[in-house]
Each structure stands twice: as structure tokens, then as C-alpha cells.
Amino acid sequence: MTTMAVPRIVSARVHHDDSHTLDRYLATRGYEGLKKALAMTPEAVAREVDEANLLGRGGAGFPAGRKWSMMRKNPTTYLVINGDESEPATFKDHLLVENDPHQIIEGAVIAAYALQVSQIFIYLRGEFALGLERLQSALNEAYAYGAVGHDIFSSGFSIDVVVHPGAGAYVCGEETALLESLEGKRGFPRIKPPNFPAAVGIYGEPTIVNNVETLSNVPWIILNGGAAFAALGEGSSTGTRLFALAGRVRNPGVYELEMVKNTFSDLINDPALGGGLFPGRELKAFIPGGVSAPWFFPEHLDLPLGQEQVDAAGSMLGSGSVVVMDDQTCVVRASWRITRFFHRESCGQCTPCREGSGWLEKILERIEIGQGRREDLDLLLDACDNISPGLTWPPQQTTICVLGPSIPSSITSAISRFRDDFLAHITLGRCPHV
Amino acid sequence: MSASSPVSLTRRSGAPASFTPTHLHPEVLDRARKLIALYPEPRSALIPLCHLAQGQDGWLTPEAMIDIAGLVGVTPSEVLGTASFYDMFHLEPVGKYVVSLCTNIACLLRGALELLEHAEDSLGVKSGGTTEDQLITLEEAECLAGCDRAPCVQVNSRYVEATTPETFDHLVADLRAGRRSAEIPAHGTLIRVQRTVGLAADRDEIARQRAAMAEAEARRAATDGTAS
Predict the structure, then answer these.
(1) Distance in angstroms (rounded) separating the CA atoms of residues A302 and A289
(2) Which residues of A293-324 are buried (b: 16+ CB within 10 A; e: fewer)?
(3) Which of residues 122-141 of A touch B (CB under 8 A)?
(4) Which of A145, A215, A365, A373 registers the highest number of CB atoms within 10 A of its CB?
């Protein structure tokens, strides 16, 4: 099976060296979507996005149009763009921020018009030094061009955009933690329900938080219509999506593919995409949607890249990052490293996450270095069960945010499939891979 | 913490109108005030201001935090409380170049731990340590979203090519010889980010428009309610 030719929606310009400049943007239909949107009513703009069934590209996959419709009516409201991309092995927003910043700005201003918000903040992770420079330069250009600021394109609509740097905290990708961070505080996720950001967001005012890739789709949707977007893909997974492929493949990278029409095997093996595994290597496992997602195995290769399909198979498409592990990969080490990440990034508010992640990391480490005990496997699962009772998918939650229940995914996946690998560490007294 | 720091971090400041910053340089202060003006509430500028201060001093000093507290209207301990949550803020002096080497899953699968071992051996410091000449601090980082160039390395938040021991040594030699100083500026992710305009849309005018719209909508809804 070969990959289908599809219109590139969000990555149409990125191959140009000057794709981040206003000149290139205007030469490739830039800001035409905004001009068209400003001639429509805000409600009509929102309807197009709703009709497109644009699923959020940040991880949760919640329809953007529905999110917009949930905003509480209020004189002051805000739009916040989530560019804190920190889910391990996810690097798609990185590409858009550095290589097509105007598209993000245009999508954001269109959304702001549809929602009639008072101000836009674009929150980028602080480690994107070049991205921050490119986005701020683009924003300066956009102000000068009249696409942002006072009386945009003489439409009477005004909006300001502020680029805001984060400072290194995975949990700030969680939207309420991001809002806390944007208020100048520690990135502690807020308790919800009842008050989601659309009702009580930044400064207590209604706030819509959308991912960078989500809003990058909006100019195309306005130009071509929500129906044209919904015609791509299948079922509720419409349009295209950026997939970040990493790990033990020949061509790691970001690939834009039509939803559902390609399989994981296409993404990993197609010569124009992942290019397959290294010579002589065999696939052991792969993570379908960021390290919070349960792992997949060779029998899942023919599964289509669609949200419903992956959900039905017991995992999630999440942030769109696919990590490939081959037969040389030590799964104990892999799950140890993922667990250590969660331990380092746990904000510390909830005991199951703060303490549990540390215990799990220590137990996995001693297994990896050959000091584990047979009963450690049950101990691991028991500790996982305390963080997410029942170890089901989607996971039960004992914590304020979903960071906690994401911790067991790699551990339960690795133990249930590769129990022998764990036992080999314990009986050999060392890692068989080193 | 510098030895000559006489002011306690728990001093309450609460942005008195008379607050006079004493530590931040005039051009940094000017940028700080422009940043604060972009937000509905001054405290929102706290993290950007910490980046600016770190750009000035190379790390986040207690003196800078006292200035930031005064500028945004919180106590210095609140600035410390926020800053200590974030990996990018160095509350102790670090080298001129912070070399961050990612060992998270995508990089792990491509030899990151081996590269880290090489880095520690060749620099003679453990992760988190600074070389004797105070030039390089080595850091084991979490995912830096550069997984297509794994193992991913950043110097002062700039992506650099250093995926093998050879290229890593080359990078270090370049840093030592000062050959990368144009490409890799000092600390502070905001050092080269310059906003050329302030807020252009009149916030009060926007609020008035939105309020009028909401009122009209409420009126319509009320009329619909009576009609049905």
C-alpha cells in the first residue's frame, strides 16, 4: 500500500527556506483566509470550523468547534494558543512555529474573530529560542501589514496578540496549568470539572485554549470550507494530521497525512515516509501517540491512523507522535526512562502521582541494573493500580490532571507483553542488552 | 547566591509606587516595563522578566528577583516560588553555555545515554555540573522536541548538531574557541526577541464593544423567551 496524494494543509510551505517570512506567506495565499473570515459573521466562521469537525491536535482530540461553542458569555474573554509541546517524541508544533509562524497568527486571529475575544496569548515553550524569534518577527510583520492590531484590514475588528515564553515544564501543556503559568505562577493544574477554562480561565475570565496545529488548520478551512476539510479522512477523524515519527526508523521526521487513509505500517515503512527499520532489525513495539499512550505491537501495524480506530484498539493517537522500538530495544530501560520523565515532571500536587512515579522509577531502575526481585513485577502493577485504579484504558483518575494516569501506560504495556524481558534482567542480574 | 546579597528574599514589596529597581540595567528595565504593559495583570510578565534577568546576569540572582517582585507587584519569595518550578531558571550560577542533552525515549533509542557518558567523560563533569573554567554546564534534559535529530542537543536553547561523540567534541571545541558566540547568544531565551509595537487595539474600546454585543444578545434572548 502506498500513501495517498493529499492536499498539504498545515505543512504546505515548510519546505521553503523563507517559509517563515511575510513575503513567502503572502505569495502562498497567506492572510486570504482572514480577509474572507472578516467579511463573514463571527457565527458563520465558527460554523465552518464546527462543520470541519476539526479535532484538537494537542492530545485530547476534542472537537475545536464544540470547544468554542462552550465559551461562557462574558464581556472579557481570551484565546490562548498552546505551543508548550513537551510530550516526549512530539515535535510537530516545533516545525510549525519555526517554519510557518504566520499561519499560526492567521489561524489565531480568525479564531479570535469567531469567538470575539479580547486578547490572544501564544504560549510557546521556552526552549524554542528560534521559534520565539521567528514568531515574534512574524508578529511584528503582521502588525505592520495590518493583519493584527487596530481595525484589521479596515474591518472594524481589533485584536492584540502577545507571544509568551514558558520556562521548561511538561505539565504546562495541560491547559489549566498553562493558564496558571501564564498568570505568573507555578504550573499547577486546576481542579475541573466544574470550571473548565471555557467558563473560568485566565484571570477568572472565559478562555479558549487551542493547540498550535489545531489553529494552523483554520485558515485553510475558511478558504476552502469546512465541508472540504470534513471530506478528507473518515468518520470523525477529518482532514490531515501531522505525525511525528521517531525512534528506531531510518527517516524520523514530521509527515502530514490524511487521517485514516494510511496505516501505521505506511508511516513507518513507506520509502517516502519513515523508510522502514534499520537493515536486519525487526519491529518489537511502537507507541502510537506520545509516551502517555499504551504501546502497540506488530499486529497493530495495519491499523489506520485515525482517532476512533486507535481508541477502539485500546490506545490513543494523542499528540500524533509515533515512537518505534526494534528487537535491540530494551523495554525495561525504555519504560524506566519514560517513568523517570513523569517523576521529574510531576508537579507534586497529588500524592499518587508525586510519590507513585518515584517508587515506580526506583523499582524499574533496580530491575534494569540487575538488582530486581521476582515480586517487583507485581509491585510495579500494584503501584500503577494505586495511581490509576483498575489499569483500564481510558484510565481511571485519582489526580487533578491526566499526568498521573498516564504514568502506568508504558509499564503495563511492557510487562504484559514482555514479561520475559523483565524476568531475564532479574535472573541474569544484569541488562541482557548491554 | 552572591556573598554581598544583603536583602532577604522574604521582604514584602507589593509594588509600592515608590519602588525603585536597583539591580536590572536600564535597557533591561525598559524592556521589562514594555513587557508588563502587554498583560492585563502585571504578574503575567513574571516568567518573561525572569528570562530577561537571566539574560543579563547569566543566572537568576536574588537581587534580580527582588526587582522583578517590585515591578510586577508580588513578594520576592513569590518570584522565587514561581521560578523554582521551571527547569530553565538557574537559581545558582551556571556556565556561559548550558549544554542540554536529551535522554528521553526518542533520543534514548538513538544512543543518548552513550552520548551523555561521552559528554561527562570528555568535559570532566557529571550531569548538572559546570566545567572548571566556568564555560560549560552539562544538563541531562527532558524531550526538547527535536527528535528527528536524536540524540538532540541544545546550547542555551539553540539546537545544535552533536549526535555523535565526534560532533559533540567538535561543538565543545567551537564553544571553547568562541566560534559559536554569534549563533548562540548568552542565556535568556528572549535575548533576541524584540516586539516592535505595544498593544495596538484599545482594550477599553474592545471591552465596551464586547459588552454591548453581550447586552444585545441577552436582549434578543429575553425577547425570544417572551415570544415562546
Answers:
(1) 16
(2) bbbbeeebbebbbbbbbbbeebbbbbbbbbbb
(3) 125-130, 132-133, 136, 139-140
(4) A215
Between A and B, how many CB-CB pairs are < 8 A?
207
| Domain boundary assignment for chain B | 14-92, 97-177
> Where does B14-92 sit in CATH, by number?
1.10.10.1590
Judged by CB atoms closer than 8 Å, whether chains meet at B143 and A341 is answered as: yes
Q: What domains does chain A contain, in order, with CATH numbers? A: 22-230 (3.40.50.11540), 233-326 (3.10.20.600), 331-428 (1.20.1440.230)
Kindly state the cell numbers that stand for A400: 487533578
- Kindly state the DSSP code that residue B8 receives in the 8-state scheme: -
Mutate to test the interface with B, among A43, A82, A91 (most CBs of B within 10 A): A91
Q: Which pLDDT tens digit goes with each residue over A192-251?
A: 988 999 999 999 999 999 999 999 999 999 999 999 999 999 999 999 999 999 999 999
Which CATH architecture best describes the domain B97-177?
3-Layer(aba) Sandwich (3.40)
pLDDT in tens, A104-155: 999 999 999 999 999 999 999 999 999 999 999 999 999 999 999 999 999 9
Residue among A95, A109, A123, A160 with most chain B CBs within 10 A, to mutate: A160
* Nearest chain B residue (CA) to A94: B145
CA-to-CA distance for A242 and A370, rounded, in angstroms? 39
